[in-house]
């Protein structure tokens, strides 16, 4: 954020420190909602394992590049923490899915075998079944053969399960005690208003924690060997070839990590199993991290007696050149964080689009009905099956 602000209660260094502290607070808690979500559901099907693996690789290169480039110590500490949290998510995926590095393809609706009835069995059969039945009845009417033998009906009746023909018999066994009744009641999902209030409160608390953490931390780090602020700036402006290479590899991995998750959500047509706070904290952490990098005040200095010393005035264009070099040194981290922020908005769009969709694993497949089952049968007092037209 250049040029430096004048006349404000907070200087550029303080603003950068507060934003960096908020970013740290976000990244400290970012993995917790998703880890808890996986544990509660005893499943990690909503999470792309390819997303976690690529993200883990990106965090490794981020950590190595930060060490080689000599970036802020907080960024290196965060990179180490990211790596450990990624490993926890990866262990959850392996535990609930088995050892695999590929995302499972969503299950396609399978047909119910042997015409078994279920709660999702359509009351009206498929059009093809109705067409076959109508053609069969027309042929029967033309030949005058409406009545079938009683033995045929008895044979057909043996294939029916009479338990579910009674309206008093439920499709599932009834719970026997009060505890089972309470457990059988469906839980009411949170409304969008409740979700917004809950997530908004969590974000505000994390932001406050970051601000408080900044003011509780030491105001100035200890300097060794009489190092000046100008010396620190000069060290951060040095290019490290391997540090830059690792940084750009990290940026590519971060950008590519979101694509498997977006693709998995699209294939499933659902975001069930994902926790919105996981991506909300990631967005806020990336946003504040990018802003903390931009909030930099150049120091115009001169080199004398082995140290850099700040000058009271900058030469024309000198401060701008220092700021441009600073951005260039941190460009790979800016690209990775800003690009990931944009892709996270795509995930939020999927949360909105698929908000009413259930995961394909939870959807019951439709049943196959034969043409002979198109019309209901009745059971007479003697227990014999009888067609509607049978007299």
Automatic annotation (TrEMBL):
Pfam families: PQ-loop. The chain crosses the membrane at residues 12-35, 47-68, 74-96, 195-216, 236-255, 276-296, 333-354. It comes from the Eukaryota. GO terms for cellular component: bounding membrane of organelle; endomembrane system; vacuole. Gene3D superfamilies: 1.20.1280.290. Coiled coil: none annotated. InterPro entries: LAAT-1, PQ-loop_rpt. It is a multi-pass membrane protein. Residues 143-157, 379-391 have a biased composition (Basic and acidic residues). GO terms for molecular function: basic amino acid transmembrane transporter activity; L-amino acid transmembrane transporter activity; organic cation transmembrane transporter activity. Residues 107-185, 362-391 are annotated as: Disordered. It is found in: Endomembrane system; Vacuole. Keywords: Membrane, Repeat, Transmembrane, Transmembrane helix, Transport, Vacuole. Residues 362-374 have a biased composition (Low complexity). One of its GO terms (biological process) is basic amino acid transmembrane import into vacuole. Belongs to the laat-1 family. This is PQ-loop-domain-containing protein. It comes from Cladosporium halotolerans.
């Amino acid at each position: 954020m250049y040029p430096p602000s004048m006349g404000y209660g907070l200087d550029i260094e303080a603003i950068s420190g507060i934003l960096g502290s908020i970013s740290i607070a976000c990244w400290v808690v970012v993995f917790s909602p998703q880890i808890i979500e996986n544990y509660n559901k005893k499943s990690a099907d909503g999470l792309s394992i390819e997303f976690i693996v690529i993200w883990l690789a990106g965090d490794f290169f981020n950590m190595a590049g930060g060490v080689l480039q000599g970036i802020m110590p907080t960024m290196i500490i965060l990179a180490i923490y990211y790596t450990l949290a990624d490993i926890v998510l990866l262990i959850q995926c392996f535990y609930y899915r088995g050892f695999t590095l590929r995302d499972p393809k969503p299950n396609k609706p399978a047909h119910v075998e042997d015409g078994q009835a279920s709660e999702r069995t359509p009351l009206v059969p498929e059009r093809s079944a109705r067409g076959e039945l109508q053609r069969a009845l027309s042929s029967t009417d033309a030949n005058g053969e409406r009545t079938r033998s009683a033995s045929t009906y008895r044979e057909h009746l043996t294939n029916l399960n009479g338990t579910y023909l009674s309206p008093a018999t439920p499709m599932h066994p009834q719970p026997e005690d009060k505890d089972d009744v309470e457990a059988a009641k469906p839980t009411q999902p949170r409304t969008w208003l409740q979700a917004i209030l809950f997530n908004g409160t969590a974000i505000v608390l994390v932001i406050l924690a970051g601000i408080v953490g900044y003011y509780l931390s030491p105001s100035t780090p200890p300097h060794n060997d009489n190092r000046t602020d100008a010396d620190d700036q000069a060290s951060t402006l040095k290019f490290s070839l391997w540090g830059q290479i690792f940084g750009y590899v990290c940026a590519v991995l971060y950008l590519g990590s979101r694509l498997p998750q977006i693709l998995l959500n699209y294939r499933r047509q659902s975001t069930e199993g994902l926790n919105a706070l996981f991506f909300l904290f990631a967005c806020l952490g990336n946003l504040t991290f990018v802003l903390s990098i931009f909030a930099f005040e150049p120091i115009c200095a001169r080199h004398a007696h082995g140290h850099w010393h700040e000058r009271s005035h900058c030469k024309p264009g000198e401060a701008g050149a220092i700021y441009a070099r600073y951005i260039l040194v941190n460009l790979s981290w800016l690209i990775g964080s800003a690009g990931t922020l944009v892709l996270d908005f795509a995930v939020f769009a999927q949360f909105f689009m698929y908000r009413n969709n259930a995961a394909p694993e939870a959807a019951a497949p439709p049943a196959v009905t034969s043409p002979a089952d198109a019309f209901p049968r009745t059971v007479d007092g003697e227990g014999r099956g009888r067609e509607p037209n049978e007299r």
